[in-house]
Amino acid sequence: MKIAGLASNRGRNLRHIADAAPGGAELSVVLTNREQAPVLGAATERRIPTEVVERDEGESRESHERRIVERLSDYDVDLVCLDGYMRVLTDEFLDAVPTTLNVHPSLLPAFPGTDAHEQVLEAGVRSTGCTVHVVTEEVDAGPVVTQEPIPVYEDDDADSLKARVLREAEFTAYPRAVRWFAEDRVTVERDADGNPKRVAVEGDVGGDFPERRFVSEERTASLRYGENPHQDAALYVDDGCEEASVVDADQLNPGAKGMGYNNYNDADAALDLVKEFDEPAAAVIKHTNPAGCAVGSDLADAYDRALRTDAKSAFGGIVALNRECDADTATAVADSFKEVVVAPGYTDSALDVLREKKNLRVLDVGPLGEGEDHFSERFTEKPIVGGRLVQERDRQSPTADDLEVVTEREPTDEQIETMLFAWKTLKHVKSNGILFATGTETVGVGMGQVSRVDAVTLAAMKAEKDAEGKSAEGAVMASDAFFPFPDAVEEAADAGIEAVIQPGGSVNDEDVIAAADERDIAMAFTGSRCFRHD
């Protein structure tokens, strides 16, 4: 698609569109009605042809527009985009060129005219933005193509508002509109006289992954710093979230330091893990990875089993519990240095114990619900430079009936129970992830490795060196993705692994299964992987 851009001044939106080339659109010519307009230099820098058509003294608007149309006729354009073009166009121009768009710095029909920002501030509204619309003879009244909102703050003035509307609204909405036209998704519906009345956009739909998203969150805290002391940070809250979370959790140890960026990140990871289980469960998290996790007969038992996976790494970690914390569990938690403990409540005696630790943050997230009620938020998000990734949360929870046994040796009922526990826990281990488990407790965790064999080696090493009263001998191994070669299974066998749960699906599955059969290892496929890359 070829675009003609008309501007009277700097043409910053046109420059942005030229650089972004939305939908492959090309700015073929920039035309201005001012000989000294700065947009000319910007266009020349980008090797975009330019035209200057000034209005002669006493010349009619129609005559001036006919000369503009004549200049544009050499460029065979498909769309005209105005950007601060300070002339009101007549039908002489609009009937002779393709659809013409303009961007206005407010959410029309509110605040039309040249002083939109001043009108916004005088009206005291809390939101403004921009509107991309089809141009008609009536100023700022053509049918809307798209809009983009932004908040208005108490400390805004016209200059600050103008700058934010440009960069946060116009630089988003105008390229979107151009892209829609370039993708041939826009229909401009017209009345019997040919005047544009409404714009329809094919595919501009809602649903789980809508065409467009507006995200509004409130800052709930300024944090001491980010991941590192030289990074500023803040916490924002989604007031529409109904799931138990650490964001709005009550901090019950008033003498402790405030929560930091890493504390929130780790505490969220820990809470998300223990929500997987209906039975009493505890997890110890370090740098968002489980140092240990277990399900026990009661909370104190679960915490003891989790801690003994890797008590050394648990130093300075985050503890999450899925039951009200009692005094016995609190005493065990307080026995060594921890940063945060998260639970759906605490007994008074538990709080007496935990508050003796001056800088232990004690978070009460409230009731977790039961089963699937643990999870009400369906999606997770990860901001990346220039955008945001959105996906469904990994809520897969295979049962024994979902497993496909692929080896000659059948896993025992106890091993199947361990497989299912290990899989739920492994979903919370950074990939490449390997987890060793016995019963319903972790034995060794290998996380974040670039080689799956290295992850097995790490899990075996942790089980051998750091697990207290545990061993990889006779344990179950879980892998978050298939084994591309038999080497990881061979490494696991050397460590004493007797059963494996993995997704399957490798082109070398037969070789991997053969390696398991040769070593009398039971193996089951889940049919789906559980990568975690954040």
Automatic annotation (TrEMBL):
Q: Which EC class does it fall in?
A: transferase
GO CC terms, sorted: cytosol
Q: Name one Pfam family in it.
A: Formyl_trans_N
* Pathway of action: Purine metabolism; IMP biosynthesis via de novo pathway; N(2)-formyl-N(1)-(5-phospho-D-ribosyl)glycinamide from N(1)-(5-phospho-D-ribosyl)glycinamide (10-formyl THF route): step 1/1
Q: What residue stretches are annotated with the Formyl transferase N-terminal domain?
A: 1-178
**What InterPro entries has UniProt attached to this entry?**
AICAR_Tfase_dup_dom_sf, Cytidine_deaminase-like, Formyl_transf_N, Formyl_transf_N_sf, GART, GART_AS, PurH-like
| Record PROSITE patterns | GART
Tell me the keywords, alphabetical order.
Hydrolase, Multifunctional enzyme, Purine biosynthesis, Transferase
Give the EC number(s) under which this enzyme is classified.
2.1.2.2
Recorded GO terms, molecular function? IMP cyclohydrolase activity; phosphoribosylaminoimidazolecarboxamide formyltransferase activity; phosphoribosylglycinamide formyltransferase activity
One GO BP annotation is: 'de novo' IMP biosynthetic process
UniProt protein name: phosphoribosylglycinamide formyltransferase 1
